[in-house]
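Posting for a labmate who doesn't have an account.
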Amino acid sequence: MLTVRLFRPFSAAHFVAALPASARAIAVLDRSKEPGSAGEALYLDVLAALHESERPTERVIGGRYGLSSKEFTPAMVKAIFAELAAPTPRRHFTVGIDDDLGYSSLSYDAQFSIEDSATTRCVFWGLGADGTVGANKDSIKMIGDDANTYAQGYFVYDSKKSGSLTVSHLRFGPAPSARLLDRARRLCRLPSVCLS
């Protein structure tokens, strides 16, 4: 996966140099929509960079993800790779929303997961200053102290402190999160290189 950190000015030379020589098919993912354009901004710049460098690539497709604040899940990534491997993939696609105007949506299995079935995921909602975030931070620390359990916590809260909504995301299980990518590659049959 290649992540573009600086965009417009877009350094075509640096982009082409960072692209692995083994890459033959590329899916460019944009999180924006440009109505009336021939494609999204990053997709067009990648096409131009590849064309000007005369680098041979079998195919380049472009898609939109995360529109309307939709989550971007492993199931959606699997659908993108399936589209990229199709004999005649769509040049433009959308994933995560139902495009009922342009009919460019990729279908995906929403139940697909790369996590171990023994992994437990929890979401707790609370109000600022009610102790929910503190209790969940303590909980995830105690769970993580077990030598046979790997734990992660992610907490969302407002700077207003008291009275605002808080959300605590906890995940724990017997497998470390670092092994998720290897599991994803096996389940999705993913190549080792993709572009976003």
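Reply:
Got it, the structure tokens are right above this. Residues 120-174 form one domain.
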